[in-house]
Amino acid sequence: MDLLCATAVDVSRMVASGEISAREVARFFLDRIQTIDPKIHAFLHVDPDWTLSLADAVDAKRAAGKPLGPLAGVPVALKDILCTKGIPTTCGSKILENFRPPYASTCVEKLLAADAVFVGKANMDEFAMGSSTENSAFGPTANPWDTSRIPGGSSGGSAASIAARMALVAIGSDTGGSIRQPAALCGVVGMKPTYGRVSRYGLVAFASSLDQIGPFAANVRDTARTLSVISGRDERDSTSIDAGVDDYEAALTDVKGLRIGVPKEYFAEGLDSEVESRVREALDVLKGLGAEIVEVTLPHTSYAVATYYIVCTAEASSNLARYDGVHYGYRKTGTPDIIELYSKTREAGFGPEVKRRIMLGTFVLSSGFYDAYYTKGLKVRRLIKQDFDDAFKSVDVIAGPTTPTAAFRMGEKVEDPLSMYLCDIFTISTNLAGIPGISVPCGFTSGGLPVGLQFMGKVLDEKTVLKVAAAYEQATNFPTMPENL
């Protein structure tokens, strides 16, 4: 089988049966990275010895007659925000340029237990703050469909690695759309689970009440299998939900009789006409599959961006206080006192967007402004959650565009932070509400750029979200890899 056309499910089956070795798979994708990634820059760190040692361990396990895990030999890209023991974890920031964690994240441990093989650490916006992967301290990632355009962010390297077939599964984190938005712009599948469904232990924190780890893949079935692997309660994460892990693959059935809500607020000013056309065409497909399309309202949608940038910056200000040049990470030497050490280290170690968000967060938490901004933001967050609760009383899932436009050109929004922030207007609310969401490809613009369709579900109801996504995917089957690669 041509590995470029293989799915993660295919590879795990072939490795388990001995049809191909995990080392052969790893070698193929390492060669692919060496050939393709100079044009894309999806990876910050690739260590062939590490990758091949993991592959050899899988082959040795099979040779010993031991059963292999559900991701046996599958090449996986890890967003460089997940701690990997002894392997660089930079968060796309100069301040962590030489950081090698002494432990691995729970997500990484679960993937290893499933016999996955890591092919590299993927590029990202610094500390996951951005929508374009242009904020990485180590250079931007390009969109494989058009390398003059951005891949989305902050998990742009993870999404691009799937679109360019340098991995079959990738892991990202989603704080306000950082999995779903790049998945949409790169024409692949990306899922944010319910908050607490996947342990955050070993995920370098940006905004702790919003961050959630999730999978990317070229299809829904691979996404479902990976989610089953990484989900579950973890005693090391106090926000981890004590809920059973479902067999998400088994849930991939038809959508007959399901009620799909379409929020009228997601089809207002600012939505590109071609994106709207592709999404409405997708809704017609779902109707043809037997689903009922119902208009719903999410009345506080217009407050989501403002609320998000109060809550996330406040939490970022707190979480990033630890990077001071004393505990670990980059240190600015030659400073005469401790205050100047803090100041000079953070000035040199952080990029402009991270500094902007730290300052915003410090402001909204400051004396005299806490109630006016942060407390009010938490109250509006509760109203946004209530909007979804009310809508889900009458529908099973909610559908709409993932992003307001297709991928924009590099540099186009760098000097306009507000315009950049609005790129996440359709994804932010799911993080504020803590519900699951997925983006699947739903066609292309006239310029050949991918468009994403988003499904959102009830808390812990990933099964229904995946069911609808899979049914739509099987009825359409859009390409998820550019022909020129």
Return the CATH class of the domain at 8-251.
Alpha Beta
According to DSSP, the number of beta strands is 11
* Strands in their spatial order, largest beta sheet: 1-3-2-4-6-5-10-11-9-7-8
Oligomerization: single chain
The largest sheet is: 11 strands, mixed
Annotated CATH topology of the domain at 8-251: Amidase signature (AS) enzymes
What is the succession of H and E elements? HHEHEHEHEHEEHEHEHHHHEHHEEH
Helix percentage range: 25-40%
Q: Specify the CATH homologous superfamily of the domain at 8-251.
A: Amidase signature (AS) domain
Could you tell me the radius of gyration in angstroms?
21 Å
Global shape:
globular
Mean pLDDT, all residues: 96
Instruction: List the total number of helices.
Output: 15
Q: Whole-Å distance between the termini?
A: 18 Å
Overview of the structural elements:
With 485 residues, the chain is α/β, with parallel strands linked by helices. It has a domain of 244 residues: Amidase signature (AS) domain (Amidase signature (AS) enzymes, Alpha-Beta Complex). It has an eleven-stranded mixed sheet with strand order 1-3-2-4-6-5-10-11-9-7-8, sandwiched between helices. 38% of the residues lie in helices and 13% in strands. The longest helix has 22 residues.
